Task: structure prediction
Amino acid sequence: MDDPVFWQTLRLTLEVSLVTTLILLFLGLPLGWVLAHKRFWGKRVLESIVLLPLTLPPTVLGFYLLLLLGQNGPIAQTFGFTWAFRFEGLVVGSVLFSLPFALNGYREAFRSLDLDLIQTARTLGAGWRRVWLEVILPITWPGILSGSILAFAHTLGEFGVVLMIGGNIPGKTQLVSIYIYDQVQALQFDRAAEAAGLLLAVSFVLVYLVRTLEDVWRSRMP
Amino acid sequence: MEIAYALKHPVRLELKLQVEGFTVLLGESGVGKTSLLKAIAGLIPANGEPFAGLKAEKRPVGYLPQHFALFPHLRAWQNVAFSLAHLPGPDRKRKALAYLELMGIAELAERYPRQMSGGQQQRVALARALAREPQILLLDEPTSALDLATREEVFGGVLERLKALALPTLAASHDLWLAQRAHRVAVLTRHGLLQQGSPEAVFARPKNLEVARLVGYRNLWAGVVLWLEGEWAWVQTPLGVLQVARPDWVQAGQKVWLGIRSEEVFTLDTQKNRLLGRISQLSWQGLRLRGQLMVGGVALDFLLPRHRQLQLGLSEGLELEVALEPRLLHLMPA
Result:
């Protein structure tokens, strides 16, 4: 804990995780709703794509992102900006990599929602805004929160994707998990142990929270 | 109120329906009763009057799905207040309580749905629908989520309150008990809307075989009209020649269907239409005794109130003579 780089790294890790989780919330909620309740052509393809990060080696995902967002990539050539080796690149990689975790939580929460409630709410004069704010979210929030916490925890511990797309620049794109690896490589086992212990504790608390929320959620379902 | 609707999905349906007071749309499951209610409420795409083209949230309807759809995270009064979003805060609660009072459940105001019985939930859902000040109330299978044994007790009171409101109400149901207590019954089958009218008319004079089966006729036989005389017709049936009240459409030589309700098999003492048979398959159905009288090879289903059984002392295998009252035998075109 005496290493100033560690605190910088921890701070960056938390920032990436938080921003990733917020983006996943805005992206994942509508997507989760669509996957839970809409039928459309190509739905299975879409489901497979968003679940792909679960089985894909993180380095593969990171590699393709590097090609896409790197200096000579199509994004750079078309729009003129490069997100590789930057905070933005870390976030894009994390969003894609943690999407299945957030999405599963959201989708299950929406799937177990009785659609009669929504239809009835509409016949009672509620437009879509009120339906979301006063019916859907108050009933499904434990599931949504648990999906978000899982995504947050998963992002905290990410290694392969952020190593590829971020490049492990200390103080700029180095995250805690890679920091630990570096310390071990440098035979700084004390530092590695401290950082690892901290991640372990945080992860346990988060997963414990998710389990608690699942119980809360179940007790609310009629 | 006249309802004229056409929908294509999930069932193809086109009908014109008169809703007066408490009207039951009677039909088996799958014929599109629920879909029609949803279409009127604006929840599935359809063409029709009234409320054409309005979004669901703009239609003045009170819609109650089968399981009432109370919001589980809101107390009873908050559920009702959901319909009253246009009022300022204090007024909302006051008005919500007034609607709960109207349904006779003011004392449940602070309860959550999971703390209430099915019947209580239904009353809260009705209070909530009424708070919308609808022009029509749409009830989907209002008695199906209730316990059959307590249905009369639980829903009887609700029904009286609803009738007293004089609000046009359309209840989709396959429940004959409910249909018999309605102001009006409309019979929907896969072939469309076959008959509508008072429960007396529909239950006593079903228009055809399909309606007859749906309104509970168990004794239905094919027959041929032999001759006509005054207000009577004589019909050849598997049970023999029976004398029947003559409808105006019937002609000698015509093929017909003949029916009599199980509960009317023993009704009156008459010298006409006497049948001798042997009793089989006796069983109690609640407080009524159901059985079959085998006449030749034909089974005549009957249903007796308890006090009649006390007088008659029927048992299986016993030989018995019954008389079918000609005015209670109903003829339908084949």
Remarks:
- Chain A has one domain: 4-220.
- The first helix of chain A runs from residue 4 to 37.
- Residues 65 and 165 of chain A are 7 Å apart (CA to CA).
